[in-house]
Structures are given as structure tokens and as C-alpha cells.
Write a structure and sequence with these properties.
There is one protein chain. The chain has 439 residues and is mainly α. Among the domains are: 97 residues; 138 residues, Leucine-rich Repeat Variant (Alpha Horseshoe). The protein has 31 helices and two strands. Strands 1-2 form a two-stranded antiparallel ribbon. Helix 24 packs parallel to helix 27. It is elongated. The two termini are 44 Å apart. 39% of the residues are buried. GO terms for molecular function: mRNA 3'-UTR binding. This is Pumilio-like protein 1-like protein. Keywords: Cytoplasm, Repeat, RNA-binding. It is found in: Cytoplasm. It comes from Sarcoptes scabiei (Itch mite).
């Protein structure tokens, strides 16, 4: 046994078989699955042994798979909850025969809740739900009835609930919807609950989501200012029905200045601008343009609100973009002194010069040297066909980036580059869905 600082054991060979020792010491380069007879469970619970079995199972014959399976099935629960063994079970759900997958699924029954809340077992449950027939899926998920909120608020269990929603037909998930009644606000402001709410809105039928949305709309103003709730509101804006988007935008109207200066609510204001209907977007931009100049200046140099102004410049139609330019013009020199102000000027350079190939001077230089423009002259001007309405690309997903896995555990999973890693890494998957460059 080797110790670091006399306290932390990093290697333990007590109880290891001679076969496993020889394998770990690279003395058996031609080892096969047949050679592991009566040692499958031991190898599965070893970092290097587990990786070896996983690799072999991907290309194994049915006979070889059955040889391994015969030893695994009697120790299935033990391996499902093991740091390295869980990967071997996952491989069987991925590459095993239909009979082997169903037999393993039967061993899960009666232990679904315990496995769902366990760090490694939750991954096996997720992989099983992706791989087994609908009737077995329903049998497994029924064991969570009465324990939904416990699972949703658990760092492991929430992933299982999400996977249930993604893989199982909505009619079998009504008990999850029922558990959320009266809990939507508290779950939307929960680091794990907010994810599950989003999965429900994505995958459940309109009759089921109606009650969720009704509760959400009751608490929209509070949710947009919450570090987790704002992601749920953004999700509705991006994927929801037009009438639900409109309700959120109505709440934001009249509060753009205040909400734009809020770390979390500013994300929602941006999403409103990009997802609003044309008339709604115009009203939001006009609200900003009609502010006193000092208010717009405050937004442009604010660490959060400046992104709202940038977004308006991006998606505004020609006339509105010109009006924004007029409102910004008096502040050009001052904005150059602020990091966020420079971002505003860069946006104007990009979008106001679009389609004017002969222009070589930045628009901010033009603003300073050209004759004054009035708001009325802008409003009466004809549209410039060279000014395009540009919407920004959808943001990529973000994660908590908190993993409970050790380096050794992660290296035991051979699927480090594919989608199965998300399941194996547990807390790295999914998260709050929308990345914001402010953070």
C-alpha cells in the first residue's frame, strides 16, 4: 500500500487475484474474455479491468457476451453501484442482446429509488431507460411515484427524472406532473428542479404543461430575477407557445431599464428581444429610445444592461437602428472610456456599415463628423435596403461543471468522447441550458 502524506491511499492490492495483478502489470498482452472466467466481477470493479471488459464487449460475439453476462447477472446491483463496475453494466445495456438487457432491467426492479439516488446507480438507470422496451420503462418509472420531489432535488436523482421525461411517453408520466402542482415556483428556483421543469416543457403534452405554465406566469417577475428561475423563463421564451411568450413580454414592458441592470433578469430581457414578435420587439426598443438620454447612457455603461442595448442593435429593423444611433450619438466620446461602451460602438460599426462597401471610416467617426440628425428625421427617413436585420445565433448549452468523479473513474469509462459521457459524468450534463457571456 502506497501513501501520500501518510494519509491518502492511492493504491491497494490487498485481495487482488494473481490474474488481475499480472494484467495490471502488463504481463498478459493477449488476454481474452474467456481467460477471465470466474474473475469477471473482480475485473469489473478494477479501473483497468473494467476498461478492458468494456472494450472487449463492443466487439464480442454473442457467446463471449453470454460468458461475461453469466458472472455479472448474479452481482448486478453490486456492480451498478460500483465506481468502475457501473460502466460494465452500461455496456451491456448498450451492446448486450435483447434478452440480456431485459434480464438486467428485471434486476433493477424493486431498487429503482435507491439506484436513482446513488452516484453510480443513477447512470445505469438512465442508460437502461434508453435501451429497454416501453413496457419495462413504465414498470421502472412507476417505482418513483411518491418520491418525485425527493429525486428532483437530488444531485443524482434529478438526472433520472429528466431521462424519464425524455424517454417515456407522456401518458405514463402524469404522476410527475401531479407532484409538481403548487411546487413550480420553488422547483424553478432550485438548481436541479429548474432543469426538470425545462424537460417537462419540452417533452410533455399541452394538457400536462398547461398547469406548469399557469404557475410560472403567476411568479414570472420573481423568476426572471432568480439565478435559476431566469433559465426557465428563457426556455419558455425560446420554445413556448406565442401566447406564453406574450405574457412574459408584457411583464417586461415598462421595466426594461430596471430589469436590464439585473444580473439574471437582463438575460430574460435579451431573450424577449430576440424571441418577440415584430410589434412586440418594436415596443421594447422604443421604450429604451424614449428614455431620457441619461437613462440610455446608464444602460450602455452598465455591466449587464449594455448587452441588452447590443442585442437591440443586432435585431432592430433599419429605422429603429437609426433611432438608436441618434440616441447614442451624444455619448460617443464618453462611451469610448468604458469597456462596455466600446462594445456598443463596435456593434454600431458592424451593423450600420452593413451593405456600404465604399465606407472605410468607422460609423462612430461618421457620427462625430456628420451633420446632426434629429429623431424626427430618422423616423421619416426611408428604409435603407443595405441595413439587414440580424439575429444572433442561439446560445450553446452550459453546465454546472461540477463533477463528483475522480480522474481514475473517468479514465475507466472508455466513452470519453461520445454522448454516453454525459450520463457517466452525471452533473456535467444538461444544466441550465442557456449560456450567458456576462458571467
Amino acid at each position: 500500500m502506497v501513501f501520500i502524506n501518510n494519509t491518502r491511499s492511492i493504491e491497494k492490492n490487498v485481495g487482488r487475484s494473481a490474474l488481475l495483478e499480472d494484467f495490471r502489470n502488463s504481463h498478459l498482452p493477449n488476454l481474452t474474455l474467456q481467460d477471465l472466467t470466474r474473475h469477471i466481477v473482480e475485473f469489473s470493479q478494477d479501473q483497468h479491468g473494467s476498461r478492458f471488459i468494456q472494450q472487449k464487449l463492443e466487439r464480442a460475439t454473442d457467446e463471449e457476451k453470454q460468458l461475461v453476462f453469466n458472472e455479472v447477472i448474479g452481482h448486478a446491483y453490486q456492480l451498478m453501484t460500483d465506481v468502475f463496475g457501473n460502466y460494465v453494466i452500461q455496456k451491456f445495456f448498450e451492446f448486450g442482446t435483447t434478452q440480456q438487457k431485459q434480464a438486467l432491467a428485471q434486476t433493477i426492479r424493486g431498487s429503482v429509488l435507491d439506484l436513482a439516488l446513488q452516484m453510480y446507480g443513477c447512470r445505469v438507470i438512465q442508460k437502461a431507460l434508453e435501451s429497454i422496451p416501453a413496457d419495462l420503462q413504465k414498470e421502472i418509472v412507476r417505482e418513483l411515484d411518491g418520491h418525485v420531489l425527493n429525486c428532483v432535488k437530488d444531485q443524482n436523482g434529478n438526472h433520472v427524472v429528466q431521462k424519464c421525461i425524455e424517454c417515456i411517453e407522456p401518458s405514463a408520466l402524469q404522476f410527475i406532473i401531479n407532484a409538481f402542482q403548487g411546487q413550480v415556483h420553488s422547483l424553478s428556483t432550485h438548481p436541479y428542479g429548474c432543469r426538470v421543469i425545462q424537460r417537462i416543457l419540452e417533452h410533455c403534452n399541452p394538457e400536462q404543461t398547461a398547469s406548469i405554465l399557469q404557475e410560472l406566469h403567476t411568479h414570472t417577475e420573481a423568476l426572471v430575477q432568480d439565478q435559476y428561475g431566469n433559465y426557465v423563463v428563457q426556455h419558455v421564451l425560446e420554445h413556448g407557445r406565442p401566447e406564453d411568450k406574450t405574457k412574459i413580454i408584457r411583464m417586461v414592458r415598462g421595466k426594461v431599464l430596471d430589469l436590464s441592470q439585473h444580473k439574471f433578469a437582463s438575460n430574460v430581457v435579451e431573450r424577449c428581444i430576440t424571441q418577440a414578435m415584430r410589434s412586440e420587439r418594436s415596443m421594447l426598443i422604443e421604450e429604451v429610445c424614449n428614455y431620457p438620454e441619461s437613462a440610455l447612457y446608464t444602460m450602455m455603461k452598465d455591466q449587464y444592461a449594455n448587452y441588452v442595448v447590443q442585442k437591440m442593435i443586432e435585431v432592430a429593423e433599419s429605422q429603429q437602428r437609426k433611432l438608436l444611433l441618434v440616441r447614442i450619438r451624444p455619448h460617443v466620446n464618453a462611451l469610448r472610456r468604458f469597456t462596455y461602451g466600446k462594445h456598443i460602438l463596435a456593434k454600431l460599426d458592424k451593423y450600420m456599415n452593413t451593405g456600404t462597401k465604399s465606407s472605410t471610416a468607422p460609423i462612430t467617426t461618421t457620427i462625430l463628423t456628420s451633420s446632426p440628425l434629429s429623431a424626427n428625421s430618422v423616423n421619416n427617413a426611408t428604409n435603407n435596403p443595405g441595413l439587414n436585420v440580424n439575429s444572433s445565433p442561439l446560445p450553446t448549452s452550459c453546465g454546472l461543471n461540477k463533477s463528483n468523479d475522480s480522474a481514475a473513474e473517468m479514465s475507466a469509462n472508455i466513452d470519453s468522447s461520445d454522448s454516453s459521457t454525459d450520463i457517466a459524468s452525471n452533473t456535467n450534463s444538461n444544466s441550465f441550458e442557456i449560456t450567458d457571456k456576462k458571467y
